[in-house]
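In the design runs reported in the main text, the only information available to the sequence generator was the tokenized backbone. The following block is the verbatim input for one such run; it is reproduced so that readers can re-run the procedure and compare outputs position by position.
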């Protein structure tokens, strides 16, 4: 009977379960926030990529000769 009494009074398992539930709720919150912001961030990074790609393409394009020049 002594084993059952100690088991009934032991609360370390309940504490571990509480910490597990808190961690699960935080994880769900992070997942929801990531999904909500994911589309917006994807559009932002695609826009930045397009601007940088255009800049690199403009740097690699030879410049047109100056008009009216010549000796």
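Verbatim output:
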């Amino acid at each position: 009977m002594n084993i059952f009494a100690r088991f009934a009074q032991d609360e370390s398992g309940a504490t571990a379960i509480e910490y597990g539930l808190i961690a699960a709720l935080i994880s769900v919150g992070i997942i929801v926030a990531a999904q909500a912001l994911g589309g917006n961030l994807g559009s932002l990074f695609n826009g930045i990529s397009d601007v940088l790609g255009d800049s690199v393409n403009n740097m690699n394009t030879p410049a047109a000769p100056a008009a009216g020049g010549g000796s």
